[in-house]
Amino acid sequence: MNWLQQIMKVGGPIKVTPDLVELADLVTDRLLEGIDENGEPLEYGGCIADKYLPIPYSGHRIIVVLQRPDQKQKEENIHGNAETPTWWQMNEQRRPTSELGSSSAGCHVNLYYELPIKAWRYDIRQVVLHEIIHCIDPKLNQEELLNTKWHEKHRQTMDRPGYQGSPEYYTAPWEQDAYISSTIYEMVQMWHRNGVSYNRAMEEIRSYPPQRTFEKEYAKNPQLWQRYMKHLYKVVQEVYQAEVVA
Ligand SMILES: [Zn+2]
Description:
The protein is α+β, with helices and mostly antiparallel strands.
């Protein structure tokens, strides 16, 4: 079996679709412009976007809020070396909203970039995508799953100090989806924008070195690394489709 056949054997993560990119772009634009949902100057606590994502997504609202930088979260992320300065939160009240169907939950995406935001546009979009993926991930949103032993097992370490950035954090099933999908989406888009050829992109995959903290964690587990590489391969095929066909 060659390297390509090997990586094609494992299942893929949640796909970054144009709808999700559209929402992430909207959030990024508003952050960079410093405006809220209503076009007013953005303040801490302000709503950046409030959007309903229909089935086949989660079927509930995604509410993106700019939060004041939280010292505890910051320290956790610095100490834990986590790469996302954002966090995801399920709405505590699962409110039934008649116009959206029964018992539709809202998901909060909290961003705590300090104003004014100086980050590179695509870095912001990547972390926003990471959190949006959590919002639509059935593993975090299906009530039947939340009560299972499987879920409990992966959740039990979450409140432990130092969880952020630990091997358990990076390899949690939902973090795998969020890291793999958002990172690969932005990486391949960047290659394409910068004129990296299809052949060069394929060469990159063949000898891709783990660089980011989560990549180094995934590289320790051959199956997880294959999952990462398979998704990278698939996204390269999609993005470079026109050139592959030509
Ligand atoms: Zn995450």
